[in-house]
Amino acid sequence: MTRGTRPPRRASLDDEAIGLLVRDVVGDWSMPAVRLDAPSWRDRVRGPRTRLMHTARLGLGRAGRAATAALALTVVAALAAVVITHPPAQPGASPNPTGQSSGQPPAGLASPLPRVILGAGDLPFPNRILVENETGDIALVDLTLGEIGGSIARSQYPSSLTVSASGVVVCICITTAKPVAGYPTELDVRLKTFTRTTTKLRDDAVDVLSGTPDPRSPDMAADHAWTSVSFSPDDRYAYLGWSTRATPVWHSGIDIVDIGTGTVTSKLALPDMTAGDGDARRTVGAPRVLGPGSDGTLLIARSWAEWGSDNVALEPARVGDDGSTATVVDGVASGLTPFPEAANCGPSFVRAGARPGGGFWVTCQTNTGTLTLRRLAADGTSLGSESMARTGFVDGDTTAVSPDGQMFYAWDPGSWTLTSIDLSTGKRANARLVTAAAAGAGADPVTALGRWLAPSADAKSILRGAILVSPDSRRLYVLAAQPVVDERLPTGSAGILVVDAATLQVLDHWPPPADLMSMALNADGSLLYAAGLPGVDASGVSSLRQGASVTVFDTASGAQRLVAGQLGMGMLSFPGPLVP
Amino acid sequence: MSERERRDRAADQAYRDHANDVYRVAYGILRDPDEALDATHDTFARAWERWDQYDSQRPLRGWLHGIVVHVALDQLRRRRVRRLALPNLGRSPVAHLETSVADAADDVARRELVDRALDGLRPSVRATLVLRHYYGYDYAEIAAMLGMSSGNVGSTLSRAHAAIRERLEAAEPAAAPRSAASAGLAAARRPSRGTTAEPPEVLP
């Protein structure tokens, strides 16, 4: 239909008007002045070292000096580590993880994955699965047709969703209103549940949260409210953590929501925290329920950041956190108790859980990426702390706990280091899942070193479910990324490594059909589902014809039972370790 | 003059002529000035490396736009690793904003609304809008750059228009009938920097 024959719209913005508006807005996007100390395109064609330095400088400006220092320290640490323990020439059964033996860019796939391809054997089950899509919502994927549906809850950020063990889609749906200085001051929170075919089961009001601008700086472009949502392991409760500014303090609390009945069973108030004294401006994050202890208590963490002025675009001058516990019985929380040993673990708490025999374990991550595991007795006494260096930065949790809660595993995809820690005794074991081929077949040690010395801020980073434990606790599955060879070249997936959980020895290696970034198992552990990134091939080379994908592996043989290779151009991942 | 010198000169000239055009598409995808600048330089570095692949019979800007789309979308997937300086404070609702009706009474506010509506779109959709409405590429050209079919370009634009329309009309229901004229005035004040003299064609 042409413009001339298009039927008249009712009084509304037509496409042409919207096009003009877009053009008007885009016209304002002009290139800023280029800093003299910033590397230009010319510097970037001079070699990877220049690029590496640029990356370091970028880190200085954007992620803070700590990140850049970490990069340098990581390089030094990697150098020392490799000198001391550089990979053996013949590491035995470990597979070749990359198939890449030179510094040449990895070859891209000749063509994108097909819509659906079936391997040998029966059709995998389940084959209609739920995934998290790029908007953070849940969508249904029909693997037999190779199709992905739309967002089931049609939620908007900052809503949080999960899928219960019974396949019910649970949304703590948040809508925002009344913005001041660009940031909403009112958040309407509702519990909504859906079947996987989008039938709504519940829609209940949970809370209305209101934050107010700081009267000292009413135009300060900073958040007036924060939320954080987590779910109990049995999918019975949702924990809505919130904080709202009410200068001179921030209020914080946790609403406990019974997902089955849609009722708020308890509201737990945390102590108010200052909004900043004098010229200082503090923002207080939402308290987060990190996990349950063995006796039903919850471990709660709350972080804050403070600036010396109202210019919150700068790095914060100070950051901190506090920890506390609360007892929850039938959805009713009480007995909030400070838990100092959980505090000052690092700026980003990752997760927590119950230790065998009582107490907690908690993990947190520093800006440098270092992961720390703390073991805590029920009375708060520290039982020890273990730090695990990270090579490069990973967006996503790369830890797992065995189903019996006994063993903690951490995977560093940058250095291919797997760590296991016995949560009862603290006994630790490390294994470098590296072969000679990974460091460069035939390369001399110095060349091999060079390849490990390129932990890049641009390195592969987005991983969801990067390590899984089989239901019988005997196997680990880890997502492997290719080592960074050249800063300017993409890094892709190196497939999936199957590891003996007891010995940390590699049992098998499954080549990647795509740039894998998320994994989940079916209930009995016989199938492993791996999601691939859209827009890149398995080598990480841009390929905009390649959609998101899901590959189903047979865990007994490693065979690919099914590949659905064109599931749209949005990133998708699995919402939990078990495929729903 | 050596081959390398010729390539250097050509790339320098390309940068002088088209850096802003490349930046604009990068910013449309990344929505971050520093990262868009980074992507711009990366684009010219890649262009330099692939200069022998450039067909001089075709517009240079379109070739550069094809590169920057890939560079920026690739960068987008890696961006969050750089943002670890802040502790985990929870989720901030800033990603979806609303503006009051009163604020939307003038063109500045409407542009802000559109700008924020663009924020709510997927990066590849923003790229489609920029390439279509600012640079006037046809569906086939955009499809080639983004690796999709021409039909998908059309449907993508249609959905994007609907999303922007919904956002604008939700914020400003009473003023919607005058929006088209207002948009036209705003555009008239700002000469198009695209090369296409014709206004963008509406969806088939």
Summarize the model shown:
The complex is a heterodimer of chains A (580) and B (204). Chain A has 580 residues and is mainly beta.
**What structural class results from the helix and strand content of chain B?**
mainly alpha
Q: What overall form of chain B do the CA principal axes indicate?
A: globular
Main pleated-sheet profile of chain B:
none
Helix content of chain B: 55-70%
Number of alpha- plus pi-helical segments of chain B: 8
Structural classification of chain A: mainly beta
Cα separation of the termini of chain A: 43 Å
Residue windows where pLDDT falls under 50 for at least 5 positions of chain A: 1-11, 47-110, 436-460
The succession of helices and strands of chain B, N to C, reads HHHHHHHH
Question: Rg of chain A to the nearest angstrom?
Answer: 25 Å
Widest β-sheet, arrangement of strands of chain A: 1-33-32-31-30
Mean pLDDT of chain A: 77
- Per DSSP E runs of 2 or more residues, the count of β-strands of chain A stands at 33
Main β-sheet description of chain A: 5 strands, antiparallel
Mean pLDDT of chain B: 71
